[in-house]
Specification:
The protein is of the alpha/beta class. The chain has helices spanning 6-16, 26-29, 32-40, 55-62, 68-80, 99-108, 135-152, 221-227; strands at residues 20-23, 46-51, 85-91, 113-118, 155-158, 181-184, 189-191, 251-254. Strands 5-4-3-2-1-8-6-7 form an eight-stranded mixed sheet. Helix 7 (135-152) links the parallel strand 4 (113-118) and strand 5 (155-158). Helix 6 packs parallel to helix 7. The chain is globular. The N and C termini lie close together (6 Å).
């Protein structure tokens, strides 16, 4: 947390109306002092990217041997202090078959909120094309995970899979770019709706009377570049949905 502008943002959080902090380095959450500083700054919701719940796979994904125990300690510190926590799980070709198990693991750890992020072929992962599964391939496991979450009383959101592919689980879809989220990294500051991770493209199918068109942000360009748009379907009005989630307004995403 020594990188600017983090020290300046933490004390002014309440004045700026910030209600949530993302912590992408879970090791910091293993340090109680850091949690106390954030709590004093008025943060009411902490996000932790767990990537996946298995130790070997987690260390491989974050490219740091021995990182998994720190992530787990961070989660347990948050839960033990009664702080609101949302865990981020990454959907990749390797992790999607285990999504329901990840939800069960999080619930057993006392985590009551989970977001599913779809892996992107951007930045350092640009060349790792095998990590990106077709959505039609991964969605059955995602929907099973959403059903598991409902059964366990865990609030679950799907962040990047278009609603048209989620069927009756479309109510679990959430567009992070629709929130007022400011991303602060060591290299840049920008709003999340302008991020490479945000869906930005509406194809012809989207414009063919799909009931979700007014709220759907579209598909990410990197996904369309890899697989095209044949999986997308226009959903007619009146299609049943279930799930849904609240919106945490005015968030700040900090990469530390």
């Amino acid at each position: 947390a020594k990188r600017e502008p983090l020290p300046r943002l933490i004390p002014v959080g309440p004045l700026a109306g910030l209600v949530a902090w993302y912590a992408l380095t879970a090791a910091l959450l293993a340090v109680g002092i850091w949690l106390m500083v954030r709590s004093a700054a008025g943060a009411t919701l902490f996000h932790v990217s767990i990537h996946t719940h298995l130790e070997a796979a987690y260390d491989r994904m974050v490219r740091t041997a021995g990182a998994y125990p720190l992530m787990v300690a961070g989660i347990r510190n948050l839960v033990a202090r009664g702080l609101r926590l949302r865990a981020d799980v990454i959907i990749t070709r390797e992790t999607y078959p285990r999504l329901p198990d990840a939800v069960r693991w999080l619930a057993a750890e006392g985590v009551r909120r989970v977001d599913f992020w779809y892996v992107s072929l951007t930045d350092g992962n640009r060349g790792n094309v095998e990590s990106l599964p077709r959505m039609s391939e991964a969605v059955p496991a995602l929907r099973e995970a959403l059903a598991t979450a409902r059964a366990l009383g865990v609030e679950a959101r799907s962040l990047h899979v278009p609603r048209c592919l989620l069927g009756e689980d479309a109510g679990h879809a959430h567009d992070p770019g629709a929130d007022r989220v400011r991303v602060v990294t060591p290299d840049a500051v920008f709003d999340l709706d302008r991020s490479k991770l945000a869906g930005r493209v509406h194809v012809a199918t989207c414009e063919a009377g799909c009931v979700h068109r007014p709220v759907c942000p579209g598909v990410r360009p990197d996904y369309l570049e890899r697989y095209g748009d044949r999986e997308l379907v226009a959903v007619p009005a009146g299609a049943p949905t279930q799930g849904g989630s609240g919106v945490d307004r005015v968030e700040v995403l900090l990469e530390v």
